[in-house]
Design goal:
- By secondary structure, the chain is an alpha/beta fold.
- The chain has 12 helices and 16 strands.
- Helix content is about 35%, strand content about 15%.
- Helix 3 runs parallel beside helix 10 and helix 11 crosses helix 12.
- The strands form 3 sheets. It has a 7-stranded mixed sheet, with helices on both faces.
- Bound molecules: pyridoxal-5'-phosphate.
- The site of pyridoxal-5'-phosphate has 16 residues, from helix 4.
- This is Aspartate aminotransferase family protein.
- Keywords: Aminotransferase, Pyridoxal phosphate, Transferase.
- InterPro entries: Aminotrans_3 (IPR005814), Aminotrans_3_PPA_site (IPR049704), PyrdxlP-dep_Trfase (IPR015424), PyrdxlP-dep_Trfase_major (IPR015421), PyrdxlP-dep_Trfase_small (IPR015422).
- GO terms for molecular function: transaminase activity.
- Pfam families: Aminotran_3.
């Protein structure tokens, strides 16, 4: 059984801890509604330890989503805190343009040793959006240098989330992502979401896989392979609702990419660093060898903002041998290769490989089995998951799995009840997502499931 690291540090409770939508705050929360900018109905979290956080009402809550899929080794790990402090006291920062630093070099080697296939190079960024943006700009640069400036379209899928920078956000495909926002529509193309639960009526799973591959081939025929630069896919669509594709989907899509010289980018911002039991999941879990892998979140377990792109050695070989050795990849971030972030990532990977990955793999089946028992509740259409990520999808009627109306905000309702009972949930429109710290133990899994059962039951009472 994994240990937590001690007590959640005591914190003063705060007078204005209760959510109050009438008070305006200087802090803008991400994804605000126009009519609520500056208002907040969110709880205030003060401290964390292991799988627990403590809020300003003095409640101890299991951190069901591990922050945002990221606090993989758990909160308040002393060894990570030491690495962070030691690096800050050794070298706080040095420019990645005209200097290098030891933690960045060491981390790059560690990542190259662990990435699949020939992903032997890494460009370090500040998070997931900048990692995806870097991968896309690298694809553009690569095709420009190869004399194929027209090969720039990027294919993603409905249900996807790839970030909040302009180009990465253009690839998102969740409800409401594009209602009020602009994007690089001239570059982005979308395929059907490979969600088996919501596949077109009448299609078997095998026929659905055929349909998805055919759709991609048809798109290539229509747009022209010489115009499509990349296909980007989260191996499991995370914030789209933990959507796990059918078994051969990713390998089939990769084969189509190879046939047409389209780069396959696996967006592993969520699935890497232990969430699925491995440092990288693309090959270990899904059998694909991408041309690039983007990552962030779990690489530092959320202790420092860091991300990156693993890049195939073949791409760089081609660039080096091109007719344009002086072409510059004019792209970089002040905080690329940040020494503190890299030192944290190194310690984090060491911790993952010294027991936490084994633990995550061992407890995942228990976590999934126990959550699956919630399917007996009338509001629950499907509980699905893989590794230590799961989604509980609620439906209006179980016979046809019709979706609930968005404004019912069923996920938020369940979250509110669960918080009263000691569990933080990540609410999506019609569902709850679970991705706890990987150090969660069996008793804590039992608590998660029991609280969810009560929270969903109370929500069913509310909706009666
Ligand atoms: N890609 C995926 C799959 C994500 O889930 C996210 C964030 O949730 C991102 C990219 C963007 O990462 P960030 O929020 O660190 O910019």
């Amino acid at each position: 059984m994994m240990q937590t690291h001690g007590e959640v540090p005591a914190q003063e409770t705060v007078d204005d801890a209760s959510p109050d939508e009438s008070r305006l705050q200087p802090l803008i929360q991400p994804w605000p509604l126009a009519g609520s900018i500056g208002k907040t109905d969110l709880g205030l979290i003060l401290a964390g330890d292991g799988v627990y956080v403590k809020d300003a009402l003095g409640r101890s809550l299991i951190d069901g989503p591990a922050g945002m899929w990221c606090v993989n080794v758990g909160h308040r790990h002393p060894s990570i805190a030491d690495a962070l402090r030691d690096q800050a006291m050794t070298l706080t920062y040095t420019s990645p343009w005209y200097t290098s630093n030891n933690p960045a070099r060491e981390l790059a080697q560690m990542l190259a040793d662990r990435a699949p296939g020939d992903l032997k190079h890494v460009f370090l960024t500040t998070g997931g959006s900048s990692a995806v943006e870097t991968a896309l700009r690298l694809m553009q640069f690569y095709n420009n240098v190869r004399g194929r400036p027209q090969k720039k379209l990027i294919v993603s899928r409905q249900g996807a989330y790839h970030g909040s920078t302009y180009l990465s956000a253009s690839l998102n495909g969740r409800p409401r992502d594009h209602d009020w926002m602009d994007g690089a529509t001239e570059l982005a193309r979308k395929l059907t979401c490979p969600d088996p639960f919501r596949r077109p009526e009448g299609l078997s799973i095998d026929a659905f896989e055929d349909f998805l591959e055919d759709e991609f081939r048809t798109m290539i025929e229509k747009e022209g392979a010489d115009r499509i630069g990349a296909f980007i896919a989260e191996p499991v669509q995370a914030s789209g609702g933990v959507l796990i594709p059918t078994k051969a989907y990713l390998t089939r899509m990769q084969a189509v990419c190879r046939e047409h010289d389209i780069l396959f980018i696996a967006d592993e911002v969520v699935t890497a660093f232990g969430r699925l039991g491995h440092i990288f999941a693309s090959q270990a879990v899904f059998g694909v060898e991408p041309d690039m892998i983007t990552f962030a979140k779990g690489v530092t377990s959320g202790y420092f903002p860091l991300g990156g792109v693993m890049v195939s050695a073949r791409l760089f070989d081609e660039l080096r041998r091109s007719n344009h050795p002086d072409a510059m990849f004019a792209h970089g971030l002040t905080y690329s290769s940040h020494p503190i972030g890299c030192a944290v990532a190194i310690r984090n990977i060491e911790l993952l490989e010294n027991g936490i990955l084994d633990h995550a793999r061992a407890i995942a089946p228990y976590f999934q089995e126990r959550l699956k028992t919630l399917e007996d509740l009338a509001l629950v259409g499907e509980v699905r998951g893989i590794g230590l990520m799961a989604g509980i999808e609620c439906v209006a009627d179980r016979e046809h799995n019709n979706p609930l109306q968005i404004d019912i905000e069923v996920g938020k309702r369940i979250d509110r009840h669960c918080q009263d009972l000691g569990l933080l949930v990540r609410p999506l429109i019609n569902m709850c997502v679970m991705s706890p710290p990987l150090v969660i133990n069996k008793a804590q899994v039992d608590s998660v499931v029991e609280i969810l059962r009560q929270g969903i039951s109370k929500t069913m009472d509310d909706l009666r």
